[in-house]
Write a structure and sequence with these properties.
Rossmann fold, 219 residues, 8 helices, two-stranded antiparallel ribbon, six-stranded parallel β-sheet, globular
Length: 219
């Protein structure tokens, strides 16, 4: 476990700061309805929500996915999602207070997500809490995406904090792998899209946080 003084914080987005599952699930079910297939219940799509279009379409279409043009399905999914990107999405309880406290303490912070940068930039302005976000790195911003460390290292440069002095908070194994590879201090967001029964102890994170406000005790 690292003991370096923390000077900045980077976050994953879906399942960490924003609960986007219901809007992503609505996009999936829109496509399924279009092809007269059974819709997916919230409890089934929620753990897959941060896996993007591929993960959700694979969940919904299952073995039948090979019978369709995936790129067409993906385009239909993303078009619906883009038009309905903030209908049901909300900040997790405690996130607003967490970000406000970081701002009050002049601790720089940013977002590193595998969500496409264009969609992320479309989504964040709906929530005023992101006005002080100093770095926004999407899944297609650079050559590599998480679990590669490049997005986190680039974001650390943008917030002017060495990666060794940065927290990276996320709810997926790829988040922790990317943070560890970048030499950041890693935190599992236990409130996020983690499959029931998943043993997060094997992820080798530095800390496990039960709620967003737990992050403050690490600063």
């Amino acid at each position: 476990m690292r003991t370096t003084k923390i000077s900045g914080v980077l976050f994953d987005l879906d399942g960490t700061l924003l609960d986007t599952a219901n809007d992503l699930g609505a996009a999936l079910n829109y496509v399924l309805r279009k092809y007269n297939l059974a819709e997916v219940a919230r409890e089934d799509y929620r753990p897959i929500a941060s896996d993007g279009a591929l993960g959700l379409l694979t969940l919904g279409f299952a073995q039948a996915l090979k019978n369709y043009d995936y790129e067409v399905l993906r385009a239909e999914f993303l078009a619906y999602y883009q038009e309905n990107i903030a209908v049901h999405t909300c900040l997790y309880p405690g996130v607003a207070q967490l970000l406000l406290t970081l701002n009050e303490r002049n601790i720089p912070w940013g977002v590193v997500t595998n969500k496409p940068e264009g969609l992320t930039r479309l989504l964040l302005p709906y929530y005023s809490e992101f006005e002080k976000c100093l770095s926004l790195v999407g899944g297609d911003t650079f050559t590599n995406r998480k679990p590669h460390p490049e997005p986190i290292l680039k974001a650390c440069e943008e917030i002017s904090v060495p990666s060794e002095q940065c927290l990276y908070v996320g709810d997926a194994l790829r988040d922790i792998e990317a943070g560890n590879s970048a030499q950041a201090t890693t935190v599992i967001a236990k409130w996020g899209y983690i499959i029931a029964g998943e043993d997060c102890k094997n992820w080798q994170a530095d800390y496990h946080a039960e709620s967003p406000l737990d992050i403050l005790s690490l600063l």
